[in-house]
Amino acid sequence: MGILRASSVCRLFHVLVLVCALYQILYVGSVAAQTAQLSVDASPQNAQVIPGNMFGIFFEELNHAGAGGLWAELVSNRGFEAGGSNTPSNIDPWLIIGDESNIIVATDRSSCFASNPIALRMEVLCEASGTNACPSGGVGIYNPGYWGMNIERTKVYRATMYIRSSESVELTVSLTSSDGLQNLASHTITGDKEDFVEWTKVEFDLASSGRNTNARLQLTTTKSGIIWFDQVSLMPSDTYMGHGFRKDLASMLANLKPRFLKFPGGNYVMGNYLVNAFRWSETVGPWEERPGHFNDAWAYWTDDGLGFFEFLQLAEDLGACPLWVINDGASLNEEVPSATIAAFVKDVVNGIEFARGDPQTAWGSVRAAMGHPEPFPLFYVSIGNQECFKHYYKDNYVKFYSAIKASYPDIKIISSCDASAISPVNPADLYDVHVYTSSGDMFSKSRMFETSTRNGPKAVVSEYAVTGNDAGRGTLIAALAEAAFLIGLERNSDVVEMASCAPLFVNDNDRRWNPDAIVFNSWQHYGCPNYWMLHFFKDSSGAALHPSTIQLSNYDQLVTSAITWNNSQDGNTYLKIKVVNFGSKAVNLNISVTGLQTDIQTFGSIKTVLTSGWLRDENSFQQPDKVVPAASPITNVGEQMGVVLDSYSLTSFDLLLGSSQGLHSVSGWRLHSSM
Question: Locate the Alpha-L-arabinofuranosidase C-terminal domain: which residues (predicted)?
């Protein structure tokens, strides 16, 4: 290296001083804290009650959210129907073990189920021994599931299949690694020539001796002959509440405490064409008899194991009200005219009878036979999916509205038209709103309903999301913008009845839409920043909203709300103040609370913050907790208190009211010590 002379060192020193000074001006100046005043009127007489079903969730069969996701079925294309009704057909993702010299497979129409007639014919050409011996381990077929099956050590899996053969059977059913070399569990099915002459249902448990996140189910034999298979299923025995939902994913929904579940989707309900629309009546009854359908809106097959009944059951398991989006005779490319819509209207009324009818009714008896004699509390029906622009929508809507109200007057009907189109001749209890926009515009929409008329039907904001470049795969800035929007909905909950984000789930192997709240694969999952943001609102439904105002000159990046809520776990009552700081400056916030009927307790109050080091920070399988809420105790709690809001942050202050022994956590947040 060369040697620096003294003069060079001096010049370098002065340059460094100038650089440091410039850095302070540009950086510190951009984030220098300002002081804001927040006033909260917590008096009961000035509070308004937020609707009891304000914040919920919206499920759409998109991104393999259900098939290969929330619905725990591990076999993809279990009934061999995905290739269509013409045979032979594609059996993807099923593949053979062996080659064409010793095994031939093809679909035919020999199933015992009239509604899904396709079955798989497997002809084995080799023998157990001799000159035409099968390969070691036998030949057969295997199914890799949805991008690999997650098989866990010591867990039990229920295998079900239908078999037919005119010869004796010796079939090994195994769970193996993706290459077949690691055997995790096996069961052998044997039978004499007469045992499987007719289609026979076979059920058994497979207990895994090992762990593999990319496993497969395989059916093999070394006996020559022909065997037919149909409806091959593999379900974990340990599902959420025993109802078939993947436990880890359903638990993430339950942790949000959703007050309603909108289902089964938007475009999924319609289909690109009506032939592929969601037809509720074809998704109920025994799972083996459901025909399944091609989800042409999102380009994949679903066996409809997750059907109308299962959605109603999921809502019940989550303690949420079901909100059914009906198919009203419209697809994305077709529309049934009013003159012939009657059959569609009748179908919807039948669907409500399935959910709510007595077990003695025609469709109520079907529900009862499925193990749920008690009616489901279906009180919300949305007619169509943002279809007000369609030619026949308004005329058809009135027919649906009249028929539903005639039989079920207590059901609240949601229109796809906005408030301006609702009138005595086109009535509605509620109207649907979808908001997809950039983060900046979403933040500005926190005032979206401030000028809405305070009379007439209320809004259901059933789909909202930040989209575009700054949304990424779920960024901090997107979550903060959505938080500001939801605070705006809280503040205007006199004209907004419900809200839910979209989409909810994405299988990382099939990203049809970004961003999403929850990301998963066969064995992992994580919440995006907007999932964790929703936790700040899970106590808002049914809470008391208090007037709040915030004052700060020349800085319009703050949005706030204040509620009083009760923690059902410990009976404590809290005043929750939420503030979004959507700007680059930290803010010193002076909070003043008036009108309280009881004191704020010295101990037990919690500050929770959602922020990160960069606006576009995202969570991932590698860093699932990069952007998550952090909680800490508030040490200077009082009716007058000073706090600091980080730049680009969502902060909540849960102030414990009344007599209490103090808390170590609030509503499930882990408590982190302040640094």
Answer: 462-649
